[in-house]
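This entry is listed as follows:

___
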Amino acid sequence: MSDATQTYSPTAASRAQLRREKLLPIINRAGGWLDAFGLAFTVPLMRMAAGENISEQLGELRRLLLIPLVGIVLFIGAWAALAPQVQTSLGAIPGPAQVWSAAGDLMVSHNRMRDKAAAFYERQEERNAKLVEAGKADRVKWRTFTGQPTYIDQIMTSLITVALGFGIATLIAVPLGIASGLSRTVNGAINPLVQIFKPVSPLAWLPIVTMIVSAAYANPLEWLPKALLISAITVTLCSLWPTLINTALGVASVDKDLMNVGRVLQLPTRKTITKLVLPSALPLIFTGLRLSLGVGWMVLIAAEMLAQNPGLGKFVWDEFQNGSSQSLARIMVAVFTIGLIGFMLDRVMFALQRAFTFSANR
């Protein structure tokens, strides 16, 4: 009896195998999402913990983590060595240490301004409360803190602006792209305009947009300043083309047999688009959206510089005009901020693509 029990009891190796078989599908599913957010290097670590071949996973870890880290370290080393050799009218190009220090100073300034705002609103509440107690409620006034926008405030303004411009571009480009992909007539009418306007620089659009918005938007809303709207529309005009082109291409590439089935079933146009066209075209549509968001984020900086919208572009321009000893370091902080935010926006769009498209999840 004891021999039989010993024969059928799972060994340590078989238990490890069962555990690996349970964990690997979970790790593989999670790996796609981790890759979408730029965390693919964690997958080999999880596979090693699950009992996968260590040498093979170390090779993956080297490819996904070690080599990129070496590239970053070499870049920082070259930057630190070469930056002091380049002299400008404002002094030497700041190295990594000076840029890091400038970033810290910007955060300190942000926290100091937030403390001032909190103290302002606290004093205002105390003053108004005393007026109410004294029976002078008619003298109560509520004012908004008017301190200068901090670096974090300017980042948020830029994100709001690009979101508005990108949203408008998407609402225009996707329907036009679908119509262009479904109809040769519409495509023939739109294509010349796309080819003419697609290469136009935001610097050319900005004066036209400024004049039109100034004339048509004479009484701006408090939550939508004129400068923000000008920047957002400029982003729209420059970023809608990748989405329009890729949407039209995706719709035109839908399997003809699938479209013929829709005709045989006499599906109405709305159902044909929602049930047949969009599911097949979504991968290319999302590719266009990712490209449009990247273009919009790049265009935004130039638009904010000239429109004087209080975002990252205006921050860079103000520092350039300021000409202080810290200006170059702060401009470089903005450069890295713009790059990191652009990377994160692309990762978010890629994650949405994985969530809503079949091809990305195969």
